[in-house]
């Protein structure tokens, strides 16, 4: 008799995006004349840039020649891409990362999920709340959580680090010892960031407690302000305690192509039960060689082309396009009286929903009154309740139109209620 991994039964079904899809379908069926604008899902919309396409076409042609054909490549990624990452992402910022500390993969989602393979069930895990759900669910699957409590929407044995307006979206250091800490900055879903000094506190905590930080910087390309670290290795001491996840998905529109990488410096160590130090770089290399056969040559050639002069120019233009969308969302909503977070160093705008309604009620109102779709904050964890996520990945026209509609519907209900302009936090739709 085959026995299943019963930890899977401890997972809660995620109804977030399926519920959104059902509600939108029902609304559009009942209102076929309405043009619904979707600013809910975190997927890019701009096509792959020409520099990447050209490199991929060349690689395809190479594959059809006797001399250029490639079979299995190195599991860790081709040296040309690993080296390009080292030079462009790290050496240019004065960060010491070596080629054999980079592992190219088919996505940061897989990397964030797979990394737990290296760690025993007994580790205490800390996640921010709200959170990118992969961190939590992969730990539930591998038995690192206790039972789920439906009343609080939390798991026993998981240490939740609230990130809300009350703490300015800066998670506080845990009051008890935790072993594995997930940090994602610029953050999904809140769009907020940590400064170098704020991140240093976490590195220091991890050093003191022999913990590991999993640092997800999938959105680092959106950072525009000084003193916001693009990599955790900008912080002194991080090479000893941090594993960094990076992705070409949002940086270069690779959500459909699939290419990412994880960085594991040789100094990062885990421990056996007897307290013996073990190199996590070595363990991950072993895991990678056993379970993965590498990203396709064609895709890696495309990723390398991002670092060419024209590649850089083209992907930066796209990022700038999304940044401008984020600015339009942020400033438009602020003008309409909403309290808004994120959106400056991130494609995500996190807004406070009007007082007295839940984030799902706000979703319904926004759909009905402005025909705009976003994501209710409670879908990302209990401390996401009271907030709502809009993304900058739509087209400019749709983004502008969505914000105009939200402003119009909120202002008209304002003036019909009070007639005296916009009041922060008191807004209604
Ligand atoms: N990490 C975060 C925080 C994300 O929001 C996402 C995707 O939305 C990912 C990782 C996944 O990246 P990839 O497309 O490389 O799997």
Describe this protein with a few key phrases.
4-stranded antiparallel beta sheet, globular, Aspartate Aminotransferase, domain 1, 17 strands, binds pyridoxal-5'-phosphate, alpha/beta, Aspartate Aminotransferase, domain 2
Which helices and strands occur, and which strands form pairs?
Layout (H helix, E strand, L loop, with lengths): L15 H15 L6 E2 L11 H14 L15 H12 L11 E4 L2 H7 L10 E5 L3 H9 L6 E2 L4 E2 L2 E5 L17 E5 L11 H14 L2 E5 L25 E6 L1 H4 L7 E4 L5 E3 L5 E3 H12 L5 H9 L3 H27 L4 E3 L5 E5 L6 H12 L1 E2 L1 E2 L10 E5 L4 H22 L12
Parallel strand pairs: 1-15, 3-6, 3-7, 7-8, 8-9
Antiparallel strand pairs: 2-10, 4-5, 9-10, 11-12, 13-14, 14-17, 16-17
Helix pairs in contact: 2-9, 3-9, 4-5, 10-12
Bound molecules: pyridoxal-5'-phosphate.
Description:
- By secondary structure, this protein is α/β, with parallel strands linked by helices.
- 37% of the residues lie in helices and 15% in strands.
- The chain has helices at 16-30, 50-63, 79-90, 108-114, 133-141, 196-209, 249-252, 280-291, 297-305, 309-335, 359-370, 396-417, and strands spanning 37-38, 102-105, 125-129, 148-149, 154-155, 158-162, 180-184, 212-216, 242-247, 260-263, 269-271, 277-279, 340-342, 348-352, 372-373, 375-376, 387-391.
- The strands form 5 sheets. A 7-stranded mixed beta sheet has the order 2-10-9-8-7-3-6, sandwiched between helices. A 4-stranded antiparallel beta sheet has the order 13-14-17-16.
- Helix 3 runs parallel beside helix 9 (297-305) and helix 10 packs parallel to helix 12.
- The termini are far apart.
- Mean pLDDT is 94; it is low at 414-425.
- Pyridoxal-5'-phosphate binds at residues 42, 107-109, 132, 184, 188, 216, 218, 247, 249, 255, 260.
